[in-house]
Amino acid sequence: MKIIVLKFGGTSVGNLKKIAKVAKIITSYINKKYKVIVVSSAMSGVTNELLLKTKKISKNFPDEEKDVILSTGEQISCALIAGKLNELGFKSRSWLGWQLPILTKGNYSSSRIVKIKKNKLINYLKSGGIPIVAGFQGVNSDFRITTLERGGSDTSAILCAKFFNAEKCIIYTDVKGIYTTDPNLIKSAKKINKISYEEMLEMASLGAKVMQPVSIQEARLNRIEIDVRSTFSKKIGTTITRKKNIFSKNTIRGISFTKNDSKLTLIGVKDKPGVAASIFKPLYENSINVDMVIQNISAESRETDLTFTVKLEDLIKTRRLLENNKSIKFKKLVVNENVSKVSIVGVGMITTPGITYRMFKALAKEKINIEVISTSEIKISVLINKKNLKKSVEILHQEFKLNNNL
Ligand code: ADP
Ligand code: ASP
Ligand code: MG
Questions:
Q1: How many other C-beta atoms can be found within 10 angstroms of the C-beta atom of residue 65?
Q2: 277 C-alpha vs ligand 3 centroid, how far in Å?
Q3: Domain boundaries of the chain, sorted by first residue
């Protein structure tokens, strides 16, 4: 069987007219003799609305019930797609996570797919049906509904491609592919024809919303090539593939940024062995992810200032944990919510000297202050004032010649 997985994101199924368009795309693959597995997100905005309801009704809405509610958005879009395909004369039905089942492990709201049972769907495909699988959801060993991380329909699609041994996985979205940076912020952003799993994973983890990071990890692990393209354009998109298939002159391939970081500084912390561990332990125990860290040691006073970033959504909890932490002493806690992280990404960085210098010089020339820095082999991130975000991305886009791609 020649199987293809097609995933449609929230904007692609954002209204009934768009769903009719999606149905047309699906049937075009049926006409090319593919067996099509469709994975759909919820209509755009729906998951956020549902989340808001849980927050409005209770300050500590149970995690299990949150997943039950959040997963309903996909139920609607899948049924609408199946309904439209039926109207066009095709056999189609929706499949929810528990119906296949899509088996998951881990915490509610961030579960991982461990297995997708194949037989029901294979039989359905053999009978000429077009299954519309609900993305973002599964069922755990307690037979309760779970959801993946936000944006997780991408992961559902990649894992369908894995378990059903699909020839191809195409992610249909609202932009024409992966760009050098978010095309909705920077108009001169250029579409990238091919990008490596490694670069895409960094870009996604550092804020490029277009693909969910876990989905790229899974694709890389299972060597699944992904095409990303637009539901609303016939133009060829971007292929996410292995490094060895890529020939690019550019050292830096993309720039990502965040708008949901916050910076905390503990001033006057007693500087003794184990103090950083005492600060971060309760954060770890509460599943708070600490990202960038910087420590300034003062030579005379045996005191240190410790700065780090967490996601804005974790800020209140982090603050409370620090203030209630009896095992540390500090003079003051300063919080800054007006920060953004800007990152340049490229595997070529490993072998090219001077990238850090060029990045810092370009920002300095525009008097943009760097507050925190973090690096890995294939990325450099800087924390800056949020008001300089667009300007910084523009400057770096120019400095690394991303306008003349690729
Ligand atoms: P979907 O609903 O299809 O899953 P998302 O909203 O999750 O789509 O992701 C698509 C959005 O990702 C685009 O509209 C764009 O604003 C954003 N984006 C951020 N960085 C990039 C990038 N480097 N290339 C393309 N899109 C990007
Ligand atoms: N509907 C889910 C979300 O908004 C999953 C997705 O869109 O991929 O996060
Ligand atoms: Mg998405």
A1: 14
A2: 35
A3: 3-174, 255-404
